[in-house]
Specification:
Layout: E1 3-12, E2 15-16, H1 18-26, E3 33-34, E4 47-48, H2 56-59, H3 72-88, E5 97-101, H4 107-119, H5 137-145, E6 152-156, H6 161-175, E7 180-187, H7 191-199, E8 223-231, H8 232-237, E9 244-253, H9 266-279, E10 288-290, H10 297-311, E11 319-321, H11 324-327, H12 334-348, E12 350-351, E13 367-368, E14 373-374, E15 379-386, E16 390-397, E17 414-422, E18 425-427, H13 463-476, E19 487-492, H14 498-511, H15 528-537, E20 543-546, H16 552-565, E21 571-578, H17 582-592, E22 603-610, E23 618-628, E24 643-647, H18 652-658, E25 668-670, H19 672-675, H20 681-694, E26 700-707, E27 710-719
Parallel strand pairs: 5-6, 5-7, 10-11, 10-15, 11-13, 19-20, 19-21, 24-25, 24-26
Antiparallel strand pairs: 1-2, 1-8, 1-9, 3-4, 6-20, 7-8, 9-16, 12-14, 15-16, 17-18, 17-22, 17-23, 21-22, 23-27, 26-27
Length: about 725
């Protein structure tokens, strides 16, 4: 199956639109200047790459839209999405799915409120402006202002988020889950990330200089890009002309350090090689590389080493450039913007330069493109590397330049373990979480990391990361992984480390940017808990986080199953983590999730999913589905033996969702009362389902996760 790119949309510091951005890149124009969005006093730099001429009221054109819930990130995403869909000529009558990567969402719009909420607890109340804060808010704005999508996903792997959105889209298309997907990323500038990178000493006082001997760090930027990717059959059916083919992709984690890259480039090179193998290409087939090229001393040197490992002698004549000297590092949008640039290079046969490069670092000696260079490009590679060591590589080619890639069949997915950290403590058996009236005999058991972890190795890990790490260990059971090269994890949180973000920005507002904590900043990224856990356990497969309000844990499990079925990993740990949070309880929960009677607690749950099982009668994930808008359980297989429906909250919405399905009359079990009423409670229900299936109490289980205007469902079955 071929996957074609049929539409592209870009918003960048060079301007709004594909042509403005690409023309600016080829001309060597730099979108870096004085930071105007906020005062950078006390930071290592006063420069940034801002998107010019962005006015939210002009983007959200409908008078029915509440602008209080919008952010710069949302507006950039909407503009890029509209351009991509218009360029692909995708009408409203055609089904489209959506995947968006990012890290900041509405942080710029809400960080002053968060600082005030830290200073004054009385300020913690639902405010419509906080609707832009959840990472999933950008998808909600796209759903509101662009079109209705069949299913939608929000993911974060820090700076490789946009690339991983395209990788997941390719997985959906090859598995037949989608006909076409709008995939990309968006991130806006904000004080939190700017002061955070400054505290790490990562910002350059001058415009950044990728691969230069005298480089001093990165320049932060903002932007968005989306690509319409669709199957060859779907494109042909409507007469769409492909821009290029998305032919290869790969993802892997370095399992090295939360901020610093693994210096030898070994893992990054392995991911490049895996992307080439997926594409069915050899290193000699690649004609251009758009490098991650952040201009930090460590990253550029690592990437050059990785390219040497992957391409060997071919590297001497392989053109390489980084776009970050012109548009800055756009964080979660970077992988999508750079994939879009690669697509345009393939289509138009001209490569953009590396602006700011004057004297090449001998350790980074490559065939650097210094001015725009024309040349035939049959295949291009785009590299993306994120905090926590999440590496993603994409390969794009001219349509029909190479023979069709080898076909593959979806693999079966098994659940082989589950681990929870909750009121019953740390455990690998979980049926108590759906037993009405059950409770720990001595009250909820407090979580103490020292009882479970090597604190020397875990010293940099915050509480959420420690809970995830321990829950994974509990899920190992008797089958602890020995080879972790194809083991990954996706663990989500509905709102991220909101209280810690609140404390961080309060310190910046009260004391100044120079007092921003370099130790705290890496733990504020949405992907930090799962990244920390992957480093601790040495997982080197796909590692990222997700966010989808009260259905986040269920969404992470479905996504992990998709990655295993698509051959991206052998084992995935998937679920959700939620810390006790006064701000979530008082502000974000009532605004964004269905209010529930249970007091909100905290907890972590992960399921261990695998492509094989050692059990003669294992628990198989036989069906999964996701939707936006109306509930869709029509494809769920009917139960054929003792069965139960597992949910976070058993309420009227659940009953309504099941009406007309084969599961409507099946008994239900809910986990929120025992798990603590937090947003990961649906994951605890899934863990309980696994325990009861393993124990022989049931043969089948439907896990149903609902949140406003979205949902996930999957069926587990004891299978021979």
């Amino acid at each position: 199956m071929r996957i074609f790119v049929t539409g592209i949309g870009i918003v960048s510091p060079l301007g709004i639109g594909v042509e403005t951005t690409f023309d600016g890149l080829l001309a060597g124009r730099r979108g870096i200047g004085a930071l105007n969005l906020f005062d950078p006093d006390g930071c290592r730099s006063e420069l940034a790459a801002e998107v010019p001429g962005l006015h939210i009221p002009e983007v959200a054109t409908s008078s029915d839209i509440d602008l209080e819930g919008w952010s710069r990130t949302d507006a950039m995403a909407v503009l890029a999405a509209r351009e991509a869909l218009a360029g692909a000529r995708v009408g409203e009558e055609l089904p489209v799915d959506l995947i968006c990567g990012g890290t900041t969402a509405g942080m710029f719009e809400t960080e002053a409120l968060l600082a005030e909420m830290h200073r004054d607890p009385q300020a913690r109340r639902p405010l419509s402006k906080m609707l832009s804060h959840p990472l999933s808010a950008t998808v909600d704005r796209l759903q509101e202002a662009v079109r209705r999508f069949e299913q939608a996903r929000t993911i974060c792997s820090a700076c490789s988020s946009g690339a991983n959105a395209l990788l997941l889209a390719a997985t959906w298309l090859r598995a037949g889950r989608s006909q076409r997907v709008l995939a990309g990323g968006a991130d806006g500038l904000c004080r939190l990330t700017y002061t955070g990178f400054s505290s790490l000493g990562a910002l350059s006082p001058e415009p950044c200089q990728p691969f230069d001997r005298d480089r001093r760090g990165l320049t932060l930027g903002e932007g968005a890009a989306f690509l319409v990717v669709e199957t060859e059959a779907a494109a042909a059916a409507r007469g769409a002309m492909p821009i290029c083919e998305l032919r290869g992709w790969a993802v892997g984690a370095e399992a090295h350090h939360i901020t610093n890259p693994e210096p030898t480039g070994e893992k990054a090179a392995a991911v490049m090689g895996a992307a080439l193998r997926r594409a069915g290409l050899a290193p000699g087939d690649i004609d251009y590389v758009n490098a991650h090229g952040t201009a930090t001393p460590l990253n550029d040197r690592m990437e050059a080493a990785a390219l040497r490992r992957c391409f060997g002698d071919r590297l001497a004549s392989l053109p390489v450039s980084s776009s970050k000297g012109q548009i800055g590092h756009t964080l979660g949008a970077a992988g999508a913007i750079e994939a879009a640039i690669c697509a345009l290079v393939v289509e138009r046969g001209v490569m953009p330069p590396t602006a700011g490069l004057e004297t090449v670092d001998p350790a980074c000696a490559l065939d650097h493109v210094r001015t725009a260079r024309a040349g035939s490009v049959a295949a291009a590679m785009s590299d993306s590397f994120g905090f926590g060591g999440s590496d993603a590589v994409l390969v794009l080619t001219r349509p029909d330049a190479f023979a069709p890639p080898a076909a593959s069949s979806p693999r079966r997915v098994w659940v082989t373990g589950a681990g929870t950290v909750g009121p019953f403590g740390v455990r690998g058996e979980h049926a108590d979480y759906v037993a009405p009236g059950s409770a720990p005999p001595d009250g909820p058991r407090p979580f103490e990391a020292k009882d479970h972890l090597d604190l020397g190795r875990a010293r940099r890990i915050d509480r959420a990361g420690r809970m995830v790490t321990v829950a994974m260990e509990a899920a190992f059971g008797r089958d602890a992984p020995t080879d972790t090269t194809q083991t990954g994890a996706i663990v989500g949180a509905a709102f991220g480390a909101v209280d810690h973000c609140s404390a961080f920005v309060h310190r910046v507002y009260e004391k100044g940017a120079r007092f921003a904590s370099p130790a705290a900043f890496p733990n504020l990224l949405p992907s930090s808990p799962v990244a920390h856990a992957s480093i601790y356990h040495r997982f080197q497969g796909p590692v990222f986080s997700s966010a989808d309000l009260g259905a986040t844990a269920e969404g992470a499990i479905v996504t992990a199953a998709e990655l295993i079925a698509g051959g991206e990993a052998e084992v995935m740990f998937a679920g959700g983590v939620e810390e006790a949070s006064p701000i979530t309880e008082a502000v974000l929960g009532p605004l964004c999730s269905n209010p529930q009677a249970e007091a909100r607690g905290e907890g972590t749950v992960v399921l261990r999913l695998a492509a094989s099982t050692p059990d003669p009668a294992g628990v198989e994930l036989v069906w999964s589905h996701a939707w936006r808008g109306d509930v869709d359980l029509g494809g769920a297989p009917a139960p054929s033996g003792p069965a139960r429906v597992f949910v976070a909250h058993d309420d009227d919405a659940v009953a309504a969702a099941l009406v007309g399905s084969a599961w409507a009359e099946v008994p239900r079990a809910a986990a929120a009362a025992q798990a603590g009423g937090h947003e990961a409670a649906g994951g605890f229900a899934a863990a309980a389902a696994y325990s009861l299936l393993r124990g022989g109490d049931l043969v089948e289980a439907l896990v149903l996760g609902l949140a406003p205007d979205r949902g996930y469902a999957f069926v587990l079955r004891v299978s021979p």
